[in-house]
Amino acid sequence: MSVNAERDISAIVAKVEPEARRLIAQYPEGCARSALLPILHAFQNVEGWVSPEAIARAAEWVGVPVSVVESTASFYTLFHRRPVGRYMLQPCRNLSCIINGAGEIMEHFRERLGIGHNQTTADGLFSYEEAECLAACDRAPCMQVNLQFYFDLTKEKVDTMLQAIRDGSFEVPPLPQSGVPGSDWHVASDGGKKALGAQGVVDANDPGGLGDRSGVAMIERLARDPEPVVARPTHERLIADGAALIRNNGEASRRDGESSGGAH
Q1: What residues make up the domain containing 147?
Q2: Is 59 inside any structural domain?
Q3: Nearest to 88 by CA among 117, 128, 135
Q4: Which of 103, 69, 51 is nearest to 212 (CA)?
Q5: Residues 99, 137: one domain?
Q6: What is this structure's pTM?
Q7: Strands laid side by side in the 119-120 sheet
């Protein structure tokens, strides 16, 4: 589905507007923008995603340009800007979970679903995303299913979960689905310069971390680029001074080494 398609969402608006008005009324006059996030969630709760039409209507209600709402919706990963599956499966891929076997769990998910990270099954039932830290490290490996937590995952638990969802007996209700999902739900970036961490790597989502158990990829990258902080015009001292600090520390270490060698 094109994100630029114009649809009649009057029925959806009729469901969301009372809640939106209630949310806006909680804030002082002139502060309607403070209700933006819950309004976007209300739209997603009704149709399963935040459509361009929903973004335009939310902008009208809170009195900001559409571009402001668009930038907000695109910043928060919990907002889906295209239709997704009825079950959003999000295993955690961060450190505690990886140490406790999340790599094998994610591999098992991909094998059982026949899709990869940020993809949706052809029947529209499952969307799969390997998520960042879910803050449940004491019960790793963990995941969320439609934002509901599941802990201490095993391959057997994954198989039981997927079967229950397919049978319609799973305890978590499905997400609404107002449109037919595509193979993925991410909207392409408008372009622009990549962040430093995404430059010079094969996969910007994996610059030597997940999938690089030995750390060799990251070491090789540092060897190629020993000064990864690039100073640019800014008032932020951390950025402006970072490269100089790295360079000065390196030069000082080299001089100390030469001095020690000369003393002998």
Answers
A1: 87-167
A2: yes
A3: 128
A4: 103
A5: yes
A6: 0.67
A7: 119-120, 126-128, 87-91, 143-145, 148-150
